[in-house]
Amino acid sequence: MDAILSDWLLERLDTDAPEPAYRQLFRLLQQAILSGRLAAGAKLPSSRTLGADLAIARNTVIQVYEQLLVEGYVETQSGSGTYVADTSPDRVDEGSAGAPRRAVRDRHRLSARGKRTIELSGVSKQQWGAFMPGVPDVTEFPLKAWTRLQSRIWRNPKPELMTYAPGGGYRPLRRALADHLRVARSANCQPEQIVITTGIHQSVDLAVRLLCDVGDQVWIEEPCYWGLRGILLSSGLKLTPIPVDGEGINPDAKHLARPPRLIICTPSHQYPLGMVMSLARRRMLLEYARQHNCWIIEDDYDSEFRFGIRPLASLQGLDTNGQVIYLSSFSKTLFPGMRVGYMAVPAPLADLFSLGLAELYREGQLMQQAVLAEFIDEGYLNSHIRRMRGLYAERRSLLIAAVQRRFGDALPVMGDEAGLHLVLGLPHLRDDWAVCRTAMERGIIARPLSAYYSVAKAAQVGLLLGYGCVPNEKIGPAFDTLADVIEEVSKAGRKTRRSVA
Hints:
The protein is elongated and about 90 Å long. The termini are far apart. The strands form three sheets. The chain has an eight-stranded mixed β-sheet with strand order 3-10-9-8-7-4-5-6, with helices on both faces. The chain folds into three domains: 2-84, Arc Repressor Mutant, subunit A (Orthogonal Bundle); 142-378, Type I PLP-dependent aspartate aminotransferase-like (Major domain) (Aspartate Aminotransferase, domain 2); 383-500, Alpha-Beta Complex (Aspartate Aminotransferase, domain 1), CATH 3.90.1150. It is α/β, with parallel strands linked by helices and 501 residues long. Residues 496-501 have low confidence and may be disordered. The longest helix has 29 residues, at 472-500. β4 (217-222), α9 and β5 form a beta-alpha-beta unit. The protein is 43% helix and 12% strand. The chain has helices at 2-12, 21-35, 47-54, 58-70, 112-119, 143-155, 171-184, 200-211, 226-234, 253-256, 279-292, 347-361, 366-377, 380-407, 432-441, 472-500, and strands at 74-77, 81-84, 194-197, 217-222, 238-245, 248-249, 262-265, 295-299, 324-329, 341-344, 413-414, 421-425, 447-448, 462-466.
């Protein structure tokens, strides 16, 4: 038995491999025991014998045997040697005779909630380049200033900044954000009402978990952000898509007759179409929420970037009854990988949301929050936003000029007054997915507008084109490539329709 085991081990040990002999020998003996090659009760060779057979140090074998003993693979008998332990699993009760066993193929079956999440997934494999919507130019981030602030804080870190984040986040950051929102968004909030999250997704998830039960009705805009729809459906909520018009979300009498638990909207820059909710529509929504005890979630995802006029005041700033939960993040203003977002919640909910956040997610990143607080206090955030607003305005103009150069007024441009993307309508096409697939093959990213609709028959056809992360000189050539694709798909569609007719 000793010779057979030694020969088997010699065939597999590689003294020239980067993995140490100790790790190789342990792994091989573990494999032999688990596979049954070494049966329970089999005696292992002495450390001296096995070391000599394998031409390795005896101490190496002793170390391996000790580790096998600690992990329960072997047992020792005083004066007798080392033996393979009985590691066979306890008997599993498979139920009564004849009871059907679940097929092996069902082992990796997703739950119904998991299936919904995956089916609704809209995540792109590429997150950078022309024309990825919603991504800022991270190469313009003021890295030197950030690094200086970060070094200053890390030079002598406070222990309380290196543990979990209690109380809704780092207090100085909550204060800085409350001050920023009062000035920049006309919001009405105190530092205690600010809750720091990892972004809009987590903010929505937290609000849904704390305010909704399975089966509750939620109003969403039609169309709306795919990620939002996925979070809500995976939470077991019933979604009611409310069409938008030129003034924003527009519920009709049938909708108004069935008050929801939540109303989720993007008042300052509807996503994806770009219209601004009118003052009359805002006041109507607030009054309706007051009368029917609904919560409104205001997703203020990119309000800092408006071109030609000042950013509009937030819906939360008009709320006098504590019905609005305000959400935003630094994904557009700084960089998405920072993963810092924030909520301004009504005062009665503030402590509950802070506690819920800590209980559900065990938040941290206090060191980064401390850097961000100083970044805001020293004026870097406002300075960066002003500079980037000018840069994005240039890129918006360049993209619109590229569209007009190729298509004139034949393709409408929508939602370009703010943000980091515009919508290019394709009224002559039926399939915006085909354009996006072909464009991706040529290195161009575009998102199909139809994918943002819950009701397919009501979907408009078009493309979401982000210009934030595209250098000025690449906008024209990249759009020319995309324009070629649009024309090719259009011609192919006309041929198909003629052949069907």
